[in-house]
Amino acid sequence: MSDKYQGFVSSSIGKFLVKNLGLPNPTRLDRWTPGAPLVDGTVLVGGAGRLAPQLVAALKELEVTATDHDTEGAKYKALVFDATGLESPDTLVTLREFFTPVMRRLASCPRVIVLGTPPESLTGDARITQRALEGFTRSLGKEIGRGGTSQLVYVAPGAERAVDSTLAFFLSPKSAYVSGQVVRIGVEGSQEAGEVADLSRPLEGKVALVTGASRGIGEQIARVLHRDGAKVVGVDVPQAASDLVSLMTELDGDHLALDITHPDAAQRIAHHLATEHGGVDVVVHNAGITRDKKLANMADDRWNSVIAVNLTAPATITRELLDQGVINPNGRIIGVSSIAGIAGNVGQTNYAASKAGVIGLVQDLAGELTDGITVNAVAPGFIITQMTAAVPFATREVGQRLNAMSQGGLPVDVAETIAWYASPGSTAVNGNVVRVCGQMMLGA
Q: What is the pTM of this model?
């Protein structure tokens, strides 16, 4: 599906109306294609914290052109600032001193990353100062414009060498629709990065389970994980079996046609993964449904079916896979929440409850997992799919424009975020919920 408004404002009359009426003018976002560089331009690195000594070298290992010296008149595709050394409010001025001189020299669709220390690990002025970074990065995300993004990555002491996969994701076009996010590395569980033998195919030899895989966001997740080298096992309801089999055949994957809410679904999935694939490395709980109605008119079946599919099934399947030891060491559990689970939505008390529950599942499991297994979630905002195409025009337009990028996201934006979580290099990324919403203006 396409954004017709974005096409309109690219026309001559559209440009005229944008200029004279102040209408939203969304930038066409860069998105990554196989074979393209992670960063098409130069990254300027600044700051003097504990990460600074290794940043330029780390970026060069990712085949990214980086420098820690600003050249007058130079243009930059991305800016990375190590703020881990800021320990008092008066030192926050170094943010202005680094960013202000170069903000007008950023290329289209630029990337900004600020690196900090988790405030909860500090006290006094240091904690106050590190927490202040959230307001800075989120505000910058809303003013950077031109398809740009801004992120804050808190790196726990000891996890300095576990940031590469996160830097690669947030600097690249793979994070096109992710902005204003706060990510924690090395806070829950491992502070080490797993080995990535091939950066172009980080999931080579891995097995990935994707529920709701036959179409929409689930289909794109399956395609991206396959692109990254995984053997995909797609799961969907029997009614979608034809589409599921066709897709898995195309991707040289495997399939299970079953209802994930059936009492024996978790056992069947666990048995299939154990006997046919020797276990699983990536579990993506993507299957989800909506049965919208205001609470005053909510029937039992609408409530129960949404909770069963969106929340009870992922929790039950995850517990079964963990209890049977089907998830391999350094495995990944990834939930698909929603901005509705964070901000709420009219007529979606059932859906929002289920998606907030997915965040609860992440928070519950993050501290108990062992063997390098991690759990994280994505929370999509307005993603352009066949489902959202059926939303009334006015509602759809508000959903697409009410974010810092003035546009809806694409299924691939959700899939790329999941692929970052899934990478063996993301072992220290645990317990996070990242919104894929273009930085919505309200609710988060």
A: 0.94
